């Protein structure tokens, strides 16, 4: 186990890397804890949750919505959860987003921690305090920013992870490489998903490295006034197609990164779109999705990153170096309409 | 107009006392504002809201619930509200609680301000950053603590205030006197509701004084680990009967204060229950409500102020001096069951 405590503006989070759920009892009082566990994770690892109060969360982004929140709050009341209760979210990004959100509003805020059970969760979704739910096709339209007390990684949970979830996780790893780490980009080019799956130490190192890339960006800019926006690379277009075309998050971001690279060529003279496309393909992710430009633009117009008629688009100058470029929504509309036919 | 800026832990609120809605344009950009206005206030003062984007809120505690939040969020998306939008809640405690809550979760948090349109709102509900909604009979079960950017008092809005709402507001004023201000308690004994209604300067002074009593308690203890709990005087029992017996908030608190006085006699040797009872009666408020002890205890068991099996009960040592006494829920149950028959 590798313990690392990081400080945010008004709170701190302790990481327990390369740990196990069994370690949890060393720092959480079982009597005061309620676990919100993703259904698939619970079914595949039921033994690990013995002795803990658990509420089962249905798996999938379609359950990241208000009716799920309503149902869980009802269960928390029935369980007698009070202000001393700590909620522990176990699962992918949906489980941790929903847990963080409920803990932030239940009785005006109680403590919470995360045990991410996917690559995506470990390197991205569990980190940074953003939580929330979708409203219709609008992703994360409602939520808060509130840091978990702890994040514990149990790599044994990855043993049952489906291939598509490995791919989803690597979409965010590739994103981190694109915006912040050219060395890691080359490492990803030299390796493969199979290699990371078979070499646990290599994987463990990659996960911890990516968790800390995201953490460091967030620490510098918790409330997303500057550098944190870079983490949205691939996400503007990605979010606009994710729910509309029922893509997994990583798939949508992969397509979004390719779109952002093409826009980067025009606005920033970016020259390595092809390397990004090849790397995305190498990790089993899609580089294209047919779409209806009008539908996509309608969702983009409601994107949280849009302020009035301008979108803060994250573009690449080169691999490892990203910038935020304000682009008028009308221009984005032109680009997306032109590319629709291709 | 009397401007006063107060600082909380991580934010500040500017009070505009003795002001008017017409002043709003001096510090709020109309283009970026959406007003959430209580239906009765809007109907009675429609002219004042001309030129502002408005969403109408149905009047009454029964609308302080998730389905109202869902409907407003949908309207905000349709209006194109983004992260630069400021929400302005206009009305009583329900309007400001709902507005503060929605602003705290919409797009993970946008700015908000309040124009309380009731005495209760001006002296209590709009102040301190607590917001939220009820879940079934459980009051404020869901919410956040988040301070408004501004609070503006327009006493002209009180011209149409129904008598019961004057009484509701004075319940909290009497509460402030009981826990913090023996001088004001005597002033209230010497005056009457009619006198305050007819003498605007007397009323203006009383409202500002009470707004600052509450503000000062909150500043010292924003997240309610100590002194802020005193503001719950009359509220433990009050909240337990409010929704169950469909009482107005002030009526429930008035009955709750009498209950707290009786418990104070036993636990703190308090001797002035009769003076509190007489003052409550003088301002048109009830001092008794028939109840079913089992029902009341069930709601109390889910009260946010309960931690495990102990309730932090706010009791009086004397008029103007309150203390928090931890009482086992089983003892509270005994007392309430004994008093049920009386």
TrEMBL record, chains A, B:
One cellular-component annotation, GO: cytoplasm
Task of the protein: Catalyzes the conversion of 3-deoxy-D-arabino-heptulosonate 7-phosphate (DAHP) to dehydroquinate (DHQ).
Cofactor names: Co(2+); NAD(+)
Protein name, UniProt field: 3-dehydroquinate synthase
BP-aspect Gene Ontology terms: aromatic amino acid family biosynthetic process; chorismate biosynthetic process
Organism: Parafilimonas terrae
Segments forming domain 3-dehydroquinate synthase C-terminal: 169-306
Source organism, top-level taxon: Bacteria
Residues covered by the 3-dehydroquinate synthase N-terminal domain: 55-167
Keyword annotations: Cobalt, Lyase, Metal-binding, NAD, Nucleotide-binding, Zinc
EC number: 4.2.3.4
PANTHER family documented for this protein: 3-DEHYDROQUINATE SYNTHASE (PTHR43622:SF1)
GO terms, molecular function: 3-dehydroquinate synthase activity; metal ion binding; nucleotide binding
NCBIfam families per UniProt: aroB
